[in-house]
Amino acid sequence: MSRLPPLSPDRMTPPQKAVHDAIVSGPRGAVQGPFAAWLRSPEMADPAQRLGAFCRFGSTFPPRLSELAILLTARHWTAQFEWWAHARMARDGGLGDAVIDAIREGRRPAEMQEDEAAVHDFCASALRDGRVAEAPYRRVIALFGERGAVELVGIIGYYCMVSLTLNVFEVPVPDGSRPLAPPASPRAGESG
Questions:
Q1: Fewest Cβ atoms closer than 10 Å to its Cβ: which of 63, 164, 173, 189?
Q2: Which PANTHER family match (predicted)?
Q3: What is the largest CA-CA distance in the chain?
Q4: The pTM is what?
Q5: Residue 154 burial (CB count, 10 A)
Q6: Pairwise CA distance, residues 181 & 48, whole Å
């Protein structure tokens, strides 16, 4: 159960209702995941949901690659709802089951297309180190240009905020969902 009770549209303030309606009428079609929490601050929720719509639906990356970046972020934070929602979107977007399963297990997929490997290594470096090593950086620049590198950082950053929101407010996944296991080793700053 989420730490925050659902907000009923008929009990929302006018600014909350305006953001709610913008989310519902857009490509998402529903207020779920982090949006239910963010509505507590409609002034934050509105630009956040617009950035998210760009990251998910408007970037230069096809769904197969943007969802790959999102799954890596979900795995990094063990964000259960994010993984639940985006694993099927990644599959629908053309990302292979072997790639999705490897990420779920915290492994680098053994076989990826060239563009998938570039996105994977860039995101994994950014999430692990807080910066991107030279080789994966150069590969992303060569394949996607500076705009692609900037948008990939935006996707990672946005979904880090989503992951933290989901984890802090304990947004549940539907019953019967297969949860992500905790990471195999502690992340930087965690005691083992």
A1: 189
A2: 4-CARBOXYMUCONOLACTONE DECARBOXYLASE FAMILY PROTEIN (AFU_ORTHOLOGUE AFUA_6G11590)
A3: 52
A4: 0.89
A5: 15
A6: 28
CATH architecture of 61-184: Up-down Bundle (1.20)
Report the alpha-carbon distance of residue 90 to residue 157 in Å, rounded: 18
| pLDDT for 1 | 67
Return the percentage of the chain with pLDDT > 70, whole number.
94
Predicted pLDDT at 169 = 94
Nearest to 78 by CA among 38, 105, 99: 105
- Number of Cβ atoms within 10 Å of the Cβ of 100: 20
Rounded distance between C-alpha atoms, residue 37 and residue 16, angstroms: 11
On whether the CB atoms of residues 39 and 7 are closer than 8 A, the answer is yes
pLDDT at 190: 45
Question: Which is more confident, 27 or 38?
Answer: 38
